[in-house]
Amino acid sequence: MAPHTQQLTRPAVRLRGLTRSFEGRTVLDGLDLDLPAGQFTALLGHSGSGKSTLLRAIAGIDHGVAGSGTLTAPERVSVVFQDSRLLPWRRVLPNVLLGLDGKDAEERGRAALAEVGLAGRERAWPSELSGGEAQRAALARSLVREPELLLADEPFGALDALTRIKMHGLLRQLWERHRPSVLLVTHDVDEAIVLADRVLVLSRGRIEVDLAVEREGGSHGEYRARLLHALGVTDAGAAAPGPPLRP
Amino acid sequence: MTTTPTGTTTETTTATPTAPPAVEEEHQVRRRRRLSPGKRLPAGRIAGPLLVLALWAAASAAGQLDPGAIPAPWTVVETGIRLWTEGTLPNDVLTSLGRAGAGFAIGLTAGIVLALASGLSRIGEALIDGSVQLNRAVPTLGLIPLFILWLGIGETFKIAIIAIVVYVPIYLNTHAALSGIDHRFVELAEVQGLSRSAFVRQVVVPGALPGFFVGLRLGVTGSWLGLVVLEQINATSGLGYMMFQAQNYGRTDVILVGLVVYGLFGLVSDTAVRAIERRVLSWRRTLSS
């Protein structure tokens, strides 16, 4: 397993004083953040807390948003969106290869599809895929570019609970194999703890909690309680994972 | 797992027909009244026209129709065959097809070029879109007198008018589709690092094709509409001319032959466009099936 202290290497993402505002409402307020290379980080926050704004800023697709601050990110960045965003007029393999050229591109695309368990579906139309399959194809599309940084904006938010669990395993597995830095935006506390080595809570435009998750020896319940507390959820039933208590 | 005090009622979804209902006085589930029209009838589309044809033939045979106003179907067929073998019908059909084809080709090209120029660049949009919208507000057939004065009363003005009738719907629908590209796909293209030309070729144009085909079908229909009107204005050949002459001699059967041929033109061209559309947009078929 990866040693958790990778601070010595150059950070993959470095934000200093990042500010973003929409129509006078400040969403990110002088945010400082370093994401070390190869780290799996989850970003939690209420809806409207600026999670997606931060992710879009790092991805460089927040055109026309007012803001300041410095931001460095790697050359090769891939983004996985909440919807699979496959072009409906392209079959699966050409979708995976979107924006990629070179002789071995097709071969790499096939390999990426095989890696996410979609071997044999290269010629399917996106409309023929289930929600989980479409999201796997989207993962393959981001992986085939061998990203140094993978940004994922609630990538499993639209999937059913069972598919989501499978996708968690797949994403973690892919990360262990390719070791990109990952920033996973989610509103699911359990998802964050299960997947990430570091969980951030964004609140009022700043990082309010920065929690290291130990794979071995850490207590899921403890992390969960801390994160929920930081998110302002104080329901007694939410303190422990598992089925809710009977009223 | 969890058991609630009245827990048994929550598991009715897996009940088999033989399982007794959990609650005694549960009444049988009645199917809801179906609100959709149900299955299509076989050959459903052609049934209506066939019925009309049968009524027409029956009324003619019974002598209920004045043959001078509405000749019998077989008279129309006979006239059609005679005009085709001995008359000028082949020549008239060719002339009409030539006019419609030339006008359509010019209109199609102009519609596509203008839509691309205005849909893909802000400068193009500023220059072109307003002008086309203005052009569209003027009924094209109202331009006929002006065009006759400009271009003379020959073939040129007829082709020009057809081209205008065709380009307007093609431009409007293609432009709307180009500018209505889903912003999520634009974002995706940015993230994937597509060049501008790759973005246009791989995202914008394929995404706008459904809109283009709507315009194309309207344009095809429009070309025939324009043709009918134009061929009755100082023409010396063509289907419209043939019908105009027939009016002078009170030959309703010839007029009906002309209408049938116009109808066939429309039907065949629309079917052809649909067939092309189905092929090009094959990715959409999976949605409806």
Automatic annotation (TrEMBL), chain A:
Entry keywords, A to Z: ATP-binding, Cell membrane, Membrane, Nucleotide-binding, Translocase, Transport
Boundaries of every ABC transporter domain copy: 13-229
Gene Ontology molecular functions: ATP binding; ATP hydrolysis activity
Keyword Nucleotide-binding: yes
Domain of life: Bacteria
PROSITE patterns: ABC_TRANSPORTER_1, ABC_TRANSPORTER_2
SUPFAM superfamilies linked to this entry: P-loop containing nucleoside triphosphate hydrolases
InterPro entries: AAA+_ATPase, ABC_transporter-like_ATP-bd, ABC_transporter-like_CS, ABC_transporter_ATP-bind, P-loop_NTPase
PANTHER family: ALIPHATIC SULFONATES IMPORT ATP-BINDING PROTEIN SSUB (PTHR42788:SF17), TAURINE IMPORT ATP-BINDING PROTEIN-RELATED (PTHR42788)
Entry protein name: ABC transporter ATP-binding protein
